[in-house]
Amino acid sequence: MKVTFRIDDVSLYMNWENFNYLVELFNKNSIKPLLGVIPDNKDPKLCRLTYNSGGWDEIVQLKERGWMIAQHGYKHLYLTKNPGILGINQYSEFAGIDYSTQYEMIAKGKKLLAQIGLASNIFMAPAHSYDTNTLIALKQLDFRYVTDGYSIFPYENNSLKFIPCQKSQPINGLVGLLTVCLHPNTMVSGDFEKLNKWIVGNPHKICDYSCALNYPSYGMLSKAIEKLVLSLRYVKKAVI
Ligand SMILES: [Zn+2]
User: Fold this and answer.
1) I need a labelling partner for 84 at 20 to 30 A (CA). Which of 93, 135, 186, 227 fits?
2) pTM, rounded to two decimals
3) Structural domain containing residue 205
4) What's the CATH code of the domain at 20?
């Protein structure tokens, strides 16, 4: 099994202290993760965090060092109560909205990121929520990858390569590709300690996100595993 990392909710408004801790930890261990950058953050919850006017320069520097960039939605505002294809959260920035509006939103976000030197062909949907219109718009806008899903291998869907994103802490598995999804805005000291310990103890299991993009797809098998994992999640929720 290979483990790769993504960092969510990157914008000028962040818990910069926590974010910088992750930057230091990954640099010290020569790990290059994926950064999910919100093009035009208007999420009231996130906009309460520390504003750093020079933040984009710092993110551009990380990109120049080999860190990967994903477009994390557009404004990070939840506009519908549609859970989307994965059905994980009951809210979405995109799922349930008509195609042309979604296209416009994603196109505007893409343009903003390109203007600040963070152009990307990887998409990260807020709340893991997207629908078929989102996928068609992404394809039309020349995206190639989506970081989402619960399989243990990447798979192709609508001519997009899905790199599954399954856990918020690393685990030791036998096969597949695990993406660990980190939220520095809400992480606490215990989370950092666990993460640090795992990274130091498992350097051979870690791969940069650029390598994760090239991990082979296992079409039908991978989708079947995802369906199974999602069904188990529904059962678990229903039982609890
Ligand atoms: Zn987010």
Assistant:
1) 186
2) 0.92
3) 2-239
4) 3.20.20.370
CA 222 to centroid of ligand 1, rounded, Å: 25
Distance 150 CA to ligand 1 centre (A): 17
CA of 9 to the centre of ligand 1 (A): 5
Confidence of residue 234 (pLDDT cuts 50, 70, 90): low
End-to-end Cα spacing for the chain: 30
H helices of the chain, where?
A: 16-28, 55-64, 99-115, 132-140, 189-201, 209-212, 219-239
Per-residue tokens: 198: 């795992």
CA of 175 to the centre of ligand 1 (A): 28
Tell me what the mean pLDDT of segment 116-139 comes to.
96
How many structural domains compose the chain?
1
**Dist. CA 43 → ligand 1 center (Å):** 9
What is the distance in A from the centroid of ligand 1 to the CA of 12?
Answer: 14
